[in-house]
Amino acid sequence: MGSLTRKAAIVGVAESDIGSTPGKSPLELMAQATRRALDDAGLTKDDIDGLCTASFGSNGVLEVGEYLQIRPRFCDSTQFGGSSFEAHVGHAAAAIAAGLCETVLVVMGTTNVADRKLNMPRGGGGPGGGDPRGGSNFSGRLYGLGGPVNSYAMAATRHMHQYGTTSKQLAEIAVATRKWATLNPKALMRFPITIEDVLNSPMISYPLHLLDCCLVTDAGGAVIVTTPERAMSLKKKPVWILGYGEHFTHNSLMYMPDLTVTPARVSGEAAFKMAGLTRKDIDVVEVYDSFTITVLLELEDLGFCKKGEGGAFVSKQRTAPGGAFPLNTSGGGLSYTHPGMYGIFLLIEAARQLRGECGERQVKGAKIGLANGCGGALSSCATVIMGSD
Amino acid sequence: MQQPMRKPLPFVYDENRPFWDGAKKHQLLIQKCKDCGKFQFYPRSMCMHCLSENIEWVKASGKGKVYSFTIAHRPGNPAFAADVPYNIAIIELEEGVRMPSKVVDCKNEDIKCDMPVEVVFRDETPELAIPYFRPTK
């Protein structure tokens, strides 16, 4: 039993409306997700005394707290990309265990699609933002490096070079993830695809094709974490935090120590150690799928297979419904939703799986789940291992 | 009115000015710590390894290899729309540091990881030259 094992539980999860939400602001999506997560937990807003959020630029923790009229005793606005929300849950568990607060709302919302129509600045880690001093002069933008796809593509190129990983193996991930999406009524892309469809889709940034890339959507999400005592008194069964770890190694991909090794190697090891569990104990795995290569690297770094063997591991649709390794069961960022920062949806799906609420896509008897966020340019990872009784 | 898109230029200030002054003279300068002896890139006013301020600018050999690359088929920035498909590469210098660049004098399909390359400068404006890398002859 590690320091945070069973010291806090996830008791409420929800997404806002997702997809294209014309006319909505990020704050509206956050409010909608918050109300739904509170209803899911059987709590009211007055029960919330901790607030965690991360956004692109505006909509920081003060704006979100004011809009929702939450005046917390604990807050965390860690922002290291789409994995921030796994970190928020870990930090919330630590704050709860330390007695700083009782019930924490982790919330996010972005409107990438709606913002385009409004010609608003766009999220998603594109170029041009931030302080022009320091590393941003030497991040590759002078040479035309733009959004995340260019960076993740370079990680894929190197993995292919070192380990012989193929585009077909990456395509297996996109196809299997889409199969899960066909079983999720909320998923945005529900028509089946084939490996050939992925390989024949337009090249975006070699070696990544269009169907190797996540969706770009509007969405908000909320997760509520509380004390063991309160969790036991609520209407749904608690999803216990069993293990947690976080790590980051760089900002720009140019300065990633090894393009084939993500921070999940450290965050995952910490989470397993805290939980006192092994890889074989995990029933359902939800890992960040900004791109197919992201998934392959995380599976290796979390220790589900050896470094370099990710391609073989995902082959023959092993991660699809009915396969030996249920992975990204919501349909993932590739096919369900991806609002620039996707990590909160990994937690939402893991909690639903562990409660047995997933209908057609339910992994039978799932008791222990893992969510691994991976944000920035493979910069940061945070791993949460959860379990239900 | 929409402004015509310009390719980004470096923001030159005290901390990185010697690098760009060197580039203008077609010299690739990196930093070396006089205390711990390690190289670093990008420019910093202290050693990223030991935080010493006792650092010097040294001329790199200009030789290295392609650590990895991508070929952008959609512009990463609208200012590069006319260039697609274009490559973006991470170069690992002989001194061990890595930097972003682009492989020139080479077809995109001929770029390979670990291929040996050497620096070549192109004058972008009268005030600014940018380092690129070409296959070593």
Strand order, biggest sheet of chain A? 3-2-4-7-1-8-11-10-9
Query: Based on helices, strands and strand pairing, what is the structural class of chain B?
Result: mainly beta
Care to count the β-strands of chain A?
11
End-to-end distance of chain A? 15 Å
Rg calculated over all Cα atoms of chain B: 16 Å
Keyphrases for this structure?
heterodimer, A: 389 residues, alpha/beta, Peroxisomal Thiolase, Chain A, domain 1, nine-stranded mixed β-sheet, two-stranded antiparallel sheet, 13 helices, B: 137 residues, five-stranded antiparallel β-sheet, three-stranded antiparallel β-sheet, 6% helix
Question: How would you describe this protein?
Answer:
The complex is a heterodimer of chains A (389) and B (137). Chain A has 13 helices and 11 strands. Chain A is α/β, with parallel strands linked by helices and 389 residues long. Chain A has a single domain (9-118, 214-387), classed as 3-Layer(aba) Sandwich (Peroxisomal Thiolase, Chain A, domain 1), CATH 3.40.47.10. In chain A, strands 3-2-4-7-1-8-11-10-9 form a 9-stranded mixed β-sheet, sandwiched between helices. In chain A, strands 5-6 form a two-stranded antiparallel sheet. In chain A, helix 6 crosses helix 10. With 137 residues, chain B is mostly beta strands. Chain B has a 5-stranded antiparallel β-sheet, with helices on one face. A 3-stranded antiparallel β-sheet of chain B has the order 2-1-3. Chain B is globular, with a radius of gyration of 16 Å. Chain B starts with 16 loop residues before the first helix and ends with a strand. Chains A and B meet through helix 5 and strand 5 of A and strand 4, strand 5 and strand 6 of B.
